[in-house]
Input
Amino acid sequence: MPTKAQVIAAQQQNPQSQPSSTESSPISKRLPRANSIVRTAASRGAQATPRQIRILLCNPNSTAAMTRACVDMVLPTLSSNVVLVGCTALEPAPSAVEGKFDDVMSAAVAVQGILQHASQFDAFLIACYSDHALIRMLREELTQPVVGIMEASLFAARTLGTRFGIICSGPRSKYTLEDTVRSSGFDNFCVGVRSCNLGVLGLKERPRDEVLRIMGQVGRELAGDGADVILLGCTGMADLKSAVEEAVGEDVQVIDGVVAGVHHLIGLCRMGVKTAKKGAYASSTTARQRRGQDWL
Output
């Protein structure tokens, strides 16, 4: 019996011995005709109208201008089927979150308003560059995906480069962000957290030229330390990205956590996944009901 190689060689020498297009063979049954259209699952999905995705951008401080700046930063990057709504915590939420006390106070105020409208949204972005308490609070309360802008930026940094650095707003946030980088398991990839020493509100209140100069300088210092990705470590830096990009050059990537967070959530929504409820994010609502507490 001839081997497979001998059959192929014989067919190449005598094309007439090859099966005609009308003859049936295991291979010809599997291959489409040259002029046919193969409609795979991917092509069918691409032709379908994408469903609307509604994301709530939650600013847990009470500075509405910061919320507007975040939304304005993201809108040009969104497709027509994505709706982004910004919400700002009401007073007595602090005007800026610069420590743990601000963190807890802002979360306690913001969660009340968010839960009233939670059913209208597919995902939630916590627009505070920290391991904010509101992130885990909403993960316990809701099934929709929730992400903070810091963790979203860390995920993006590890995808785009080998080492990252963070520009933060003040001396105290330097320590809290370093702790979060470490607890998140990213410390081996971080060249450092450097403060611009302007404060959250100072990013808007100080002269614009001064802010741009300082941000560019800190960005260059981090790049000099070996960072190939720079993270903007404050929600108030959303409109300063271009200044840092100009300072560090095109070979260094600059990531705004708000944009990274929104698109991270869009991906999760398109995947159709939810917050897992078997472990630490089991419903806190159920636990409160067992205790007879219905104050939310």
Summary: The chain has one domain: 53-271. The beta strands are 53-59, 82-88, 123-126, 146-148, 164-168, 190-195, 229-233, 253-256.
